Amino acid sequence: MLKKTPIAAGIAALATIFIAGGCAVADADKSNAVDYTAMTPEELAEHLIFEANGFVLDQEVQEGGTTRQRMVQDDLHKACSVIGGGDPDQETLEAVRAAAAESIVYPEGGIELGDWERGRELAWSGFGYRVGHKTDDHSARDVGGNCYNCHQLATDRTGGNLGPSLTGYGKTRGTSEAMLKYAYDMIYNPHVYFPCTNMPRFGHSGFLDEQAIADIMAYMFDPESPVNE
Amino acid sequence: MFKKALLALPVALALGATAHAEKPPEEVLQDLIDSVDSAYLTQSEQNLLMMADNPAMWTGMDGEDLFHTPRGPNNVSMEACDFGKGPGVLEGAYVELPRYFEDTDRVMDLENRIVHCMTEVQGFAADDPAVARRHGSGSDHMKIQTYIAMQSNGMEWNNPLDHPLEIAMRDAGEVMFYRRSGIADFNCNTCHGESGKRIRASVLPSKDVPQEWTKAMSWPAFRVGHDNVRSSQHRIRGCYWQMRMPRINPDGDASIALMSYWTDASRGQPAILPDMKR
Fold first, then answer.
1. Is residue A81 part of a domain?
2. How is residue B71 annotated by DSSP?
3. Residue A226, SS3 per DSSP
4. Which residue of A131, A136, A147 to mutate against B (max B Cβ within 10 Å)?
5. Does some domain include residue A180?
6. What is the total count of domains within chain A?
7. Bridge partners (DSSP) listed for residue B108
8. Interface of A with B in 125-154 (CB under 8 A)
């Protein structure tokens, strides 16, 4: 309890100013609430995604970290996000291609084909890395490559056509070292041959591990695989 | 099936009287099919045959009851709510959403506007199942959304771009549509940038072919594979899930920005409401 001294009165007066000031600040915050119309479309999109509760950004993800990183763009994402679709300029494409070439890591023992039967299932499976209302539990199942979503492979199952048909892949191309390297590169980081392609960077992103890539490649190249029937 | 068809006829007639479009949804769709060569529009002969018997009609009829019944702690019906064309006016309201609402100083889609009506006008708590449960044919939301949307069947999509916020949201939605990110590097355009492309056996709609896109974003629609009526927000949630991106918040402006853009992409095309999808 403060005695009514001149000093106390002064403190009280100061407190009143602080409280009033606090209100003024709060009001200013409200009236200065982010003005969407003052932002560029790009700035507003970033704001809506990261600052305005647009997405659940704090969920843990399978690769470690949180869902926030699934919305943060890396250099390739930025370079290849073109309003209206289509490709960026040639210089940008060359930079994307060069970065992709740098990114590719080869297996220690060289590129080898794995188990085509496992590869067949991985090429079909769409399981893996999904988050949100249903989250894929990677301890329960292997992560698939979901190749059939976009590619036709063996014709016993129906594939999509967002990417080219890969039916008879090994049969028509052979299994030379150069051919295996090309296919490995395409799975690991396809931007090295097709900068700003729609295809995911399955190796670079860690989506598929070395064994999964070897098994899927066996499904593409093995003479026994139904892809090459 | 025959019994269902018999039952559906009076439903179609009853709703036809309140839904002001001259053509039922299946004829709106047929006109689009006749106007353009599209593998997407014609991919399911079975769905086309079932359209006249769309279970979403029932969902809409339940919605009609819910809409006009006084409900919530305030015991008022949704007739008191403004969906953009004045309190209780539903004809053509949905094809002009998302739009700017002065009372909230916000661009809102149908789902957010229904939430606003339920909480602010009817007095429901935000966690009341009527407000919080958004998905499934049995939810109040899907019933009411379907009823309101059906009052725009056959009308042209025409979300206003007059208010600066409407323009800002549409433009931000466009950026989001083409914005690649995540472990699989996708964006919306990965799947919706070209006509005639398939994911496995499913033909994808192209955003750049408006006759396809109007069907693509004509929600609510009965999804045969889900055995449920689904909403725009449900479709967006599914797309982000497939893209390996985080769960989108249906109450956030990000989802509304995307809808502002995708509705603009269908401008001038007739809405198919309710639609039926695979």
1. no
2. B
3. helix
4. A131
5. yes
6. 2
7. B99
8. 129-134, 148-150
CB-based contacts of A79: which residues, under 8 Å, 6+ apart? A88, A92, A95, A96, A196
**What is the side-by-side strand order in the sheet with B228-230?**
B228-230, B221-223, B275-277
Chain A residues with CB inside 8 Å of B254's CB? 45, 48-49, 52, 54-55
Burial of B211 (0-12, 13-18, 19+ CB in 10 A): buried
CB B184 to CB A42 under 8 A? Answer: no
The predicted pLDDT at position B22 comes to 82
**Amino acid A202: pLDDT:** 98
Residues of chain B with pLDDT under 70: 1-21
Check CB contact under 8 Å for B181 and A73: yes
B188 is an active site residue? no
CATH number for A109: 1.10.760.10
pLDDT of A10: 44
Domain assignment present for A106: yes
Q: How many domains does chain B have?
A: 1
pLDDT tens string A22-46: 444 444 444 457 999 999 999 999 9
Q: Which residues pair with A66 in a beta bridge?
A: A60
Q: Extract the tokens encoding A199.
A: 């295809």
- The parent domain of residue A194 ranges over 86-228
Q: Assess whether A128 and A172 both reside in one domain.
A: yes
| Domain shared by A103 and A163, yes or no | yes
Task: Answer yes or no: is A162 within a domain.
Answer: yes
Interface test with chain B among A35, A42, A44, by most B beta carbons within 10 Å:
A44
Instruction: Tell me: do A30 and A99 sit in the same domain.
Output: no
Report yes or no: B248 at the A interface, CB cutoff 8 Å: yes
Question: In terms of domains, do A27 and A135 share one?
Answer: no
